[in-house]
Amino acid sequence: MLLPANRxxxxxxxxxxxxxxxILETALALFAAEGFDSASTRAxxxxxxxxxxxxxxxxxxxxxxxxxxIAHIGEQATQAVMPIASRVYAALDGSPSRAQLINxxxxxxxxxxxxxxxxxxxxxxxxxxxxxxxxxxxxxxLDPLNEAxxxxxxxxxxxxxxxxxxxxxxxxxxxxxxxxxxxxAKIFCSRSVVRALGWDTVGEGRVRxxxxxxxxHTRAICRSLKSVxx
Length: 230
Hints:
Blueprint: H1 9-38, H2 41-48, H3 53-59, H4 62-92, H5 98-117, H6 124-137, H7 143-165, H8 172-186, H9 191-196, H10 203-229
């Protein structure tokens, strides 16, 4: 009796997904630590516990693996920010109060702070170091991640600030102010900031303290926006 052709496919597919994920996570760690040029595919394969052709099979090339690592970070970030971005646009469809607009802006910054500081999130340190290194290397491979963050973080945040000052979201002063507000979170992507603070680990208490301080700054900035931008 012949077994159905797909008898073992689910298990094989799961093994394939596990192998791909293992290669991707290992590559992210090595690219973060050593950079694109120094991280060899042989070292990635050895640390991932796979043979070298597996990288070509799943990613095509070292460049393909690098792009996949960036896409992986983009997917994680997008999943984190999409709920608040959706809430922002839903609120802007109505007539939100000034306090509601500021609260939403603070929530957007909170999500970014969690991505950069929350130790409980998988691959946080490798992700931050990888993004910092890629930005220094000025690679075009980062463009899709920047575009995703522009759509799901900067655009809704500019829409909030624009509503606060009664100007279009694309107005240069609106974009500048928004980037400065979001920059309060972005700075924690750098390992040097945590090192300057003398933190071996971040922890939930420190994340809360940073969020509280950033909220104070954001609310102070928003209180002054009318007179500064108008």
